[in-house]
Amino acid sequence: MCKNTTILAIETSCDETSVSVVSNGRNILSNIISSQIDVHKKFGGVVPEVASRKHLESINQVLDSALEEAKVTFEDLDAIAVTCGPGLVGALLIGLSTAKAIAYSKNIPLIGVNHIEGHIAANYIEHKQLEPPFVCLVASGGHSHIVNVLSYEKYEIMGQTRDDAAGEAFDKIARAMGLGYPGGPLIDKIATDGNPDAIDFPRAYLEEGSYDFSFSGIKSSVLNYLNSKKMKEEEIIVADVAASFQESVVEVLAAKLVKAAQAKQSKYAALAGGVAANKRLRQVLKERGEAAGIEVLYPSPVLCTDNAAMIGCAAYYKYISGRTSDLKLNAIPNLTIGDVRI
Ligand code: KG4
Ligand code: ZN
Fold first, then answer.
1. Ligand 1 pocket test, candidate residues 13, 116, 175, 305, most atoms within 8 A of CB
2. CATH classification of 132-301, choosing from 3.40.50.620, 3.40.50.11270, 3.30.420.40, 3.40.50.300?
3. Of 10, 57, 136, 158, which one is least surrounded by beta carbons within 10 A?
4. C-beta of 277 in contact with ligand 1 (< 6 A)
């Protein structure tokens, strides 16, 4: 019988310190996530310097918990995986130096993983039948891409945002309404009590056939609506604004993903990234997918937002095809999908 491949993965690209142990790519033995949200909340967003300091403070403890929960020691590991970009440079460096120290001292391979490719890989963990090719929407705080996943290592970017990322739009609108940070989960929750047809915010479909996104127009439209209501001293029904804003973002994301899957004759349309946790997006996509004969897949919410298990999964496919990194691996804050620099 073949030996299991055990990979320890580290994710510190933004405001979650996470370490996971993953067996054979798709089985999570542990996935510890220490969130810094409470620290950044009072600033209304992530403060990079604070994020780096917090990663440094918690990384060793998170690492110990991940090994303990997985019931493994460093001696059981076949490789160390780490997110090397995109992300905040100072935050990435904490994960990278930890990973390099373990790889060097234990003399095991180091595998640099692209954070966005990690988000896509989160789908493999819970959908054991899923294999490339398939089409995937990656929507998070920093990215909004429609990707044709050609293989475990090759990606074709079909479309991407021309301005704000989808999650960024959720965060900015939530802040303008005084809901707090991060905005996505708060809008998702409050929108369940609102009327999605209350306000007719614009839908940015862009040119015919384009898979790109633009969220700056809807963002300005909501901000103008809120300002005008305030000037006229009229009541703002927050749940209606949240539901109407969410609906216009969700409709465009869902329509473009289904169209992209149809264009590539993909059996599956997958969702990934923090925004993939959105309940309304999941519901609308399921309906549209069913109507188009496309199976819609998404990870459970904890694997949609930042976590190290998805990095361990993506790393496994690099490991089995011999794509390991050397100890000179550095943080690449502007890494793109399929980037050949790692
Ligand atoms: O993937 P992620 O954890 O970090 C990045 O790589 O950016 O995504 C975080 C983003 C935030 O903008 C957050 O507001 C958004 O995902 N988000 C959501 C939901 N949960 C998280 N957006 C909409 N609905 C949600 N339920
Ligand atoms: Zn992310």
1. 305
2. 3.30.420.40
3. 57
4. yes
